[in-house]
Design brief:
The chain is mostly helical. Helices cover 78% and strands 0% of the residues. The protein is globular, with a radius of gyration of 20 Å. One of its GO terms (biological process) is regulated exocytosis.
Length: 192
């Protein structure tokens, strides 16, 4: 049976500083991208107006998010297929060194995909074209985030931080937008 991976020795304050810097860089990439997409794309493209078409739009965008999960599943399956240590499955032991990063990538991608997919579907219920344009930018940023998360994983938390923040920030924005829209709707109902 394989021994679990020992975490590398980490200078925690240095690593925390790297995480903060990378998260701020991700914010500097995400914020203008989301704003420019929300304001600019509706000037170039016509987005659906009817709720059923808006939800269909979001579900199709979710397909791109799901493809990242498929990639993670494929990475894990490829290692399991070729590794005697991992072939029996996770129920029979911890992952080998070869499997540890693909497995961690898959787990994190599943978590982020769920959060992002729910946010995009909810955002599709908010009126106006800007919300759907935001979904387009979210898909692009999710993809950038997943690629940089995977690439940076071996370099520790500081190496993963840009990718995780670039993946998560658009979803946080979508949740905030929907919650503000819900509060606005409730305020209108309260005045009736």
């Amino acid at each position: 049976m394989t021994q679990p991976l020992a975490p590398p020795h980490v200078d925690l304050p240095k690593e925390q500083g790297a995480v903060v810097r990378q998260a701020l860089l991700a914010f500097a990439v995400c914020a203008p991208t989301l704003v420019f997409a929300s304001l600019g794309l509706p000037r170039i493209f016509t987005f659906p107006e009817a709720l059923d078409e808006r939800l269909a739009f979001a579900l199709r965008a979710d397909l791109v998010i799901a493809l990242w999960v498929v990639l993670g599943v494929r990475m894990v399956a490829k290692v399991r297929f070729r590794s005697a240590e991992d072939n029996a499955g996770s129920a029979y032991g911890p992952p080998s060194r070869r499997l540890a990063v693909p497995k961690a990538f898959l787990q994190n991608t599943l978590e982020q995909a769920f959060i992002t997919s729910v946010g995009m579907l909810a955002l599709a219920t908010v009126g106006g074209e800007a919300a759907l344009a935001y979904i387009v930018a979210t898909v692009i940023l999710f993809s950038l985030g997943r690629a940089t998360f995977l690439r940076g994983y071996p370099r520790g938390a500081g190496g993963r931080a840009f990718g995780i923040a670039t993946t998560a920030l658009p979803a946080v924005g979508a949740y905030g937008w929907v919650l503000l829209d819900m509060a606005s709707d409730m305020a209108v109902l309260a005045t009736r």
